[in-house]
Structures are given as structure tokens and as C-alpha cells.
Amino acid sequence: MEEADESREEISAQMPSSCPNRVRRKCSLSGTAGLTGREGQVARGSRDDSSPQEPWHLRNMISKSRWKLLATLALVLAVMVWYSISREDSFYFPIPGKKEPCLQGEAERMASKLFGNYSREQPVFLQLKDYFWVKTPSAYELPYGTKGSEDLLLRVLAITSYSVPESIQSLKCRRCVVVGNGHRLRNSSLGEAINKYDVVIRLNSAPVAGYERDVGSKTTLRLFYPESAHFNPKVEDNPDTLLVMVAFKAMDFHWIESILSDKKRVQKGFWKQPPLIWDVNPKQIRILNPFFMEIAADKLLSLPIQQPYKIKQKPTTGLLAITLALHLCDLVHIAGFGYPDAHHKRQSIHYYEYITLKSMVWSGHNVSQEALAIKRMLEIGAVKNLTYF
Ligand SMILES: CC(=O)N[C@H]1[C@H]([C@H](O)[C@H](O)CO)O[C@](OP(=O)(O)OC[C@H]2O[C@@H](n3ccc(N)nc3=O)[C@H](O)[C@@H]2O)(C(=O)O)C[C@@H]1O
Ligand SMILES: CO[C@@H]1[C@H](O)[C@@H](O)[C@H](O[C@H]2[C@H](O)[C@@H](NC(C)=O)[C@H](OCc3ccccc3)O[C@@H]2CO)O[C@@H]1CO
């Protein structure tokens, strides 16, 4: 009885003073009808905050508009999801906890659309067995072929000559993600989603330690050249990460040979000092088939293979990695690709350090041309993008 009295008293205390005593009950119910417990309390306001400055109908309106705002936000989010799924060139939401559906041979079909008539028979990595008995020697010099560097290469392949490991080979459908080094990975929270792919391809000396939330921690393959090799690979890579060397010049073979067989290091001939001591297991090392560089340059960027200029145009390591992924995988997603436009020249290009586009002036990369190539891949659905482009 006491309780009933108390609650009546509470309701009556919430009622607007404009309600005549007789109709107070009706007046109160019409205001917060259907709301119970905490909801009702929030809508009606607690006894203490029913101040004359904030009448109950005003609070009611605020509460209603809050719901309207939430509903609008939910609608906007739904439209964004629908839009990103329907447009291939926009970014793509990975569903947390769920593996991407994978269609066997899908990337291959897409690759033939992009590259036209190209050979799927090419091995991913150079191996002594393919090289020693090679019938037609390479037509091009490095980085598009091995012409003129055969002796050096054979010495390297005598030390390290391994194929795609069984753990990748045996996958029925290979879901791959190529992680570019772009700034748009910062605060992306994509780490968990990235770790879920079967094959995670990273580039150069891009760190994971300290950036796990945004870029993940799994690295299946890391593409690098001597000048971009991380000085401490054990910190950034997993024990089974494959370190895939992309050779641009004969000196690159020289460097890996001297490291792996602990010969005298040669310091000249590099545009930046590569590591002199490099703590890796030779079984982790692979040499990328220069065929992929040729395909990326010719089919994606229409670059001439022979270039008489001092600064030679070449694909970025990221574009090369996407080309490789289309060959190796069944599903290819990308993240962290895209450079700042001309209006944002001071924006950092990397997720892990502050450097700008200015640092790339001597690089021989045409980032606008590459953006068009990536857009084309997104448009035809050959790759999907986890970050925006
Ligand atoms: C000064 C310089 O030479 N910078 C080059 C650096 C540098 O040698 C290494 O980082 C050293 O560890 O390497 C490059 O590339 P970099 O190591 O910067 O980045 C790897 C790949 O990510 C993609 N990327 C990067 C930044 C960005 N804002 N958008 C992107 O799309 C690109 O596809 C890029 O290839 C390289 O190897 O291609 C290209 C850069 O030109
Ligand atoms: C995938 O390319 C790698 C990187 O992204 C490029 O930036 C880098 O470019 C260097 C270029 O290879 C060097 N050229 C030679 C012949 O070594 C160049 O060297 C200085 C230079 C400058 C102007 C004219 C001639 C030579 O330095 C570039 C970096 O600033 O190549 C990487 C692969 O090695």
C-alpha cells in the first residue's frame, strides 16, 4: 500500500503543473505512454530534474528527436554498406569474425581480363631446377628478366632455392590481402580483419610492431629489395614469413649471396645502404620471378621495357605485389593503397612515419598512372579495397 502511494506520488510529481488535478492521470499517461522502467524514467525525467525551466513535453521532444537521430544514423550506415558493396571501386567492409567467401579460380579469371593472354605456368619464385635446364634464356635484363645476371643468380639459387610452401600450396581457395604502406591504414582498426586472410603480403620495411590494431601482425610474404630490407626482420616478421627479394640490379643478387654465405659485403652500387648483417634463415628467402615485374610494367602501366633514360620508370612494389597476388591467389583484397592528391602535398604517405610525396621524386614511379590501374582493377572486381581509394 505504501509502495502504491509512493509511486502515485512519483507520477503526480512528474506531471506538468498545467494539468488540472482531475485529469492528471490521463495527462501523465498520454505523455509517456508505453514507456516503462528506465525508459520511462528517462523520458519523464527523474524527480530531481523536473525543473520549471525544462517542461516534460520539451524533454519528451528531445527524447523523440534522439530516436529520430539514431534512426537516421542507422539508415545512413545501411546506405553506406549497400553502396560500398554495390560499387566495386569504393571501399569494402570486412565482416569481423567471418571468413570471406572464396571462389576458386576467380582471381585467375580476372587476371586474364587484365593481362590478356598471359602464362599461368610461370613459377612464382626462381628455383635452380627451373633455371638450370632453361630452354629459352630470359629476353630482358633486370628488373624484367635475368639476362646477363645468370651466373650471379645461379650462385644465389645454389644457396636458397625453394618453392611455394605446402601450407599455401595445399589451400583449396587462397584468400590474400596485399597491405600497402599508405597513411590511410592509420586508425583503420583493420588489424583483426587483415590477420584473417590466408596470405598476408607486406612490403619493404613496413612495421607491424606497435601498429597491430591497424595493420595486423600476420605476414605470410614480404616483398623487399636490399635497400628496403628491415634491419631487424625478426622483430617485424613471423618465424615462417617468406622474405621475397625483388631484384632490380645485379648487385641485389650479390648482396643476398654475401649475406647468406657470409662473404665479404660489397657496399658500393646501392642507392641506400642495405643491411650488412641480416639475421634470417636461408629457408625463408625467395627470389621473385621477374616475370611479374614485366607483367605489371607492360600490362598494367604500358611502360616500355627498354628505357634509355637516366631515371627509369618502374612499377611500385605494391603494384608488383598485387600482380603477384592475382597469380597466386583466388581472392585478392588490398588495403593501404593510394597517395595524397596535389592539394594535400604535406600529408604523410606512410602509416608509420612522416614523409611526403617529395621523397619520391627520384623513384621512377608514376603514382597517377598506378592509381588508374588500381581503379580499373577495382572496377572490374579483380580486387577489393579495405581502405578508401
Ligand atoms: C624514397 C623512396 O625511394 N621511397 C620508395 C619506398 C622505399 O624504397 C621503401 O619504403 C624503403 O623501405 O618504396 C616504395 O614504396 P613504399 O615502401 O613507400 O610503399 C610500399 C607500397 O605501398 C603502396 N603505397 C604506399 C604509400 C601510399 N601512400 N600509397 C601506396 O599505394 C605503393 O604501392 C608502394 O609500392 C616501393 O618500393 O614501391 C616506393 C617509394 O618511392
Ligand atoms: C621499386 O623501386 C624501388 C623504390 O621504390 C624506388 O624509389 C627506388 O628508386 C631509386 C632508383 O632505383 C635509383 N636508381 C639507380 C640507377 O640506382 C635512384 O638512384 C639515384 C638516382 C637519382 C637520379 C638519377 C639516377 C640515379 O634512387 C632511387 C630512389 O631515390 O628503386 C627501388 C628499387 O631499387
TrEMBL record:
EC number per UniProt: 2.4.3.2, 2.4.3.4, 2.4.3.6
Gene from which this protein is expressed: ST3GAL4
Domain of life from the UniProt record: Eukaryota
MF-aspect GO terms: beta-D-galactosyl-(1->3)-N-acetyl-beta-D-galactosaminide alpha-2,3- sialyltransferase; beta-galactoside (CMP) alpha-2,3-sialyltransferase activity; N-acetyllactosaminide alpha-2,3-sialyltransferase activity
Catalytic reaction(s) noted: a beta-D-galactosyl-(1->4)-N-acetyl-beta-D-glucosaminyl derivative + CMP-N-acetyl-beta-neuraminate = an N-acetyl-alpha-neuraminyl-(2->3)-beta-D-galactosyl-(1->4)-N-acetyl-beta-D-glucosaminyl derivative + CMP + H(+); a ganglioside GT1c (d18:1(4E)) + CMP-N-acetyl-beta-neuraminate = a ganglioside GQ1c (d18:1(4E)) + CMP + H(+); a neolactoside nLc4Cer + CMP-N-acetyl-beta-neuraminate = a neolactoside IV(3)-alpha-NeuAc-nLc4Cer + CMP + H(+); a ganglioside GA1 (d18:1(4E)) + CMP-N-acetyl-beta-neuraminate = a ganglioside GM1b (d18:1(4E)) + CMP + H(+)
UniProt KW keywords: Disulfide bond, Glycoprotein, Glycosyltransferase, Golgi apparatus, Lipid metabolism, Membrane, Signal-anchor, Transferase, Transmembrane, Transmembrane helix
UniProt cross-references to Pfam families, sorted A to Z: Glyco_transf_29
The organism's taxonomic lineage, starting at the top: Eukaryota, Metazoa, Chordata, Craniata, Vertebrata
Positions of disulphide bridges: C176-C329
Positions of region (Disordered): 1-55
Protein species of origin: Balaenoptera musculus
Membrane topology of the entry: Single-pass type II membrane protein
Entry's localization field: Golgi apparatus membrane; Golgi apparatus, Golgi stack membrane
Family per record: Belongs to the glycosyltransferase 29 family.
UniProt GO cellular component terms: Golgi cisterna membrane; Golgi membrane
Enzyme class: transferase
Protein name in UniProt: CMP-N-acetylneuraminate-beta-galactosamide-alpha-2,3-sialyltransferase 4
Record PANTHER family: CMP-N-ACETYLNEURAMINATE-BETA-GALACTOSAMIDE-ALPHA-2,3-SIALYLTRANSFERASE 4, SIALYLTRANSFERASE
